[in-house]
Amino acid sequence: MKRILTALCLLLFTAAAPATTGVAFVHGTGNQTDALHDYWQPAFVNSVRQGLIDQANFVVINCDFDQFMWDIRAAGCLAGQLVEFINAHGIDDLVVITHSNGGNVMRWIMSNPTWDSRYPSIINAIRWVNALAPSSKGTPLADAAIQGNVFEQSVGWLLGFKTDAVRQQQLSWMAYYNANWLFGTSGRPALPQPFFDVIGTDVETNPFDADSYCGGYSLNLGLEITQAFLSSCSDGFLDCSSQSGAGQVWFSDTQRTNGREPLSHNQSRRACFGLDRILRDDL
Amino acid sequence: MKTLSIITSMLLVGTSISIHAASIHLLDPLATDLAPEHIDSFTAPKSAIRVDRQAVQYSRQLSTETTLTDFPAPFVKKSRSYFEQVSLVELAKGVSLHSNSPGAVVRLTPVGKNKFLLQIADISLRNADQSLRLVDAAITLADSDQLKAAGADFGTGTLAFRIKPALGSGPFELRSNAAPTASKVADASIFIHVYEPESKLSLQLTTDRMEYAEGMPMHITASFSTDTSTPADIRLTGFVSTPGSRTRNLQFMPAGAGRFAADLLHDATFDAMPGLWSVHVFARGQVNQTTIYRDANTAFASVLASARLTGTAEVQRNATGLSVHVPIQVGRASRFGLRGVLRVMGKHGEQRVAWIAESAAWLDAGAQELTLAFPEAAEFGAKQGARFELHHLELRDQGRLSLLHRQARALAFSWVDARGKGKNSP
């Protein structure tokens, strides 16, 4: 309902001067150099951008999200590519589509407008953020990955280096950042622009069910193990409570997807079960 | 085109034209606030965060529906897992898995300079009744590539499996049939992580705050949480680790009601590296003659006061709004950010409208100031005896990623006070 009201308000305010709409795809954890092919896949991006009046008004972000969200290689890189896109295309109505930890990096920019002189202009250009399976409250899997990665004087760091992005997504770390550095969670100021969550609620890994193959069957195999670390409502990497932890829920997968299919954490960045069409119609 | 009123400006600090001004004292901070009373001396770390040198101001209106938390509740970690590291020789002889519930998830990760990659076919699991190959004992099984594709990068060569619940809660013995004969694997070992999703026994760990300034008392508590029998003969050890990989041991003492506590004074100068510190606790206890192991960790922020608020503020009004100038004593140059929420309160204490304003700039050591600008406040200024309150006043060292000051309620004043006539009233 809030989303509809927001859209109506936007319609009223934009009636006088047509806006130039653009869409940015912001990937999740990882150091991407070709996120179009390696993270999103062209079928997804090309389908979504069909919703634009000018289909050239899109950008696929490539940054190093193995770093902490505030790092110059993470939020700094994202800000640079967004500003370049906004200026080059004259975008004044930006829809940002994030996946997983990309939502946290985007929230960093929206929550800390004075951190970087480029941030305010980005915030002002944003219509809203569609956060696909955002890791807003972290994941027990980050805790599990870090557990044992502790310093013991006798043996050193047991498991060696883990990326800062993994450290950041530990439950206790995200609790601290949400309470002190990020907006949009309960008890904190709302984000300056709407942040809409798309929630993945389950994983299907049945080899005899064709739906399990969308987005790559092999990518879902590990989710059977990772699900054990999570609650009954999860997308295999994140609990639903983490995905809905910041901003406001737009929809849970089965409410809108074709055949009421759930979206695993990998499927929520792919053209699976009509997700691309839903995002396209939203532009 | 925006539903929210956003006014953004990039102004030089302190350039607003003052019509009326009054210097008033900040309210006394509460115990739950963060308000260092002195500047800390410390050696700045080599790796500093790269920051912008351009001053930025930003403000926007907040929804009156927004309820802000005055004191962020510390995180409570609940753990139903433990880990240990064993040598290949030990694994060849058989290693006990300390599980107490069916369906445990076991992760095996090779560690050490010479990583030995375990093969699924070489691993077996034994309970009281039988010895089973891993493929027969596991209900699910994944390798490191499959786990990485799922977003869980547990390290090269990792094997993870879930024990068939039908095999019961254990005890189990894990064994590798691959004899580590080659000299190059002599120092290789295996990290074993056991997670029991169905266990009713968890270790709870928490701190009494989310952040600690230099010298602040720190209270860490740990306890077993269970709806079955409480473990006996509980033993806990633990330590604090810093971003710079330094550690300090913790001494846990019984604190009643099954809880254990470690108390210490926080030494923020122990490590000046930016980043969160961690508390690690390792616990074990006896349940029904079975030893239960649990490990947990949680995070907190260490505050080195590179700057502090002096305790006063100056309120200025101009044609359209209000500015709150906040003097800052800077000990070490950095980019600092100030944030505050200005609330317009009605006669009966109800909140009518609120704005959030922020200001950041590079500040050198010495007496400095940052200004919070609320451009729309004048509209409400003279109406019906409105009073203003500045809440959630926060000072941050952006260059060191450190929250230096957080005060839930910092100023209370009227439009008249801004002319310089009145005093601050708590």
Description:
The complex is a heterodimer of chains A (283) and B (426). With 283 residues, chain A is α/β, with parallel strands linked by helices. Chain A has a single domain (2-8, 20-281), classed as 3-Layer(aba) Sandwich (Rossmann fold). Chain A contains 13 helices and eight strands. In chain A, the strands form two sheets. In chain A, strands 2-1-3-4-7-8 form a six-stranded parallel β-sheet. A two-stranded antiparallel ribbon of chain A has the order 5-6. In chain A, β5 and β6 form a beta hairpin. In chain A, α3 packs parallel to α13 (275-281) and α4 packs across α6 (119-125). Chain A is globular, with a radius of gyration of 18 Å. The two termini of chain A are 17 Å apart. Chain B is mainly beta and 426 residues long. Chain B folds into three domains: 6-70 and 306-419, Uncharacterised protein PF16024, DUF4785 (Immunoglobulin-like, Sandwich); 81-195, Jelly Rolls (Sandwich), CATH 2.60.120; 200-303, Sandwich (Immunoglobulin-like), CATH 2.60.40. Helix content of chain B is 5%, strand content 50%. Chain B is built from four helices and 30 strands. Chain B has helices at 88-93, 134-137, 144-149, 378-381, and strands at 6-9, 20-25, 56-62, 76-79, 81-87, 95-97, 105-111, 123-126, 131-133, 138-143, 159-163, 172-176, 189-195, 202-207, 211-213, 217-225, 232-241, 247-250, 253-256, 259-265, 277-287, 290-303, 307-309, 312-317, 322-330, 334-345, 351-363, 366-374, 387-397, 402-414. In chain B, the strands form six sheets. Chain B has a six-stranded antiparallel β-sheet with strand order 1-3-27-26-29-30, with no helix packed on it. In chain B, strands 2, 23, 24, 25 and 28 form a five-stranded antiparallel β-sheet that branches. In chain B, a hairpin with a 5-residue loop joins β26 (334-345) and β27. Residues 1-19 and 420-426 of chain B have low confidence and may be disordered. The interface between A and B is large, with 78 and 79 residues.
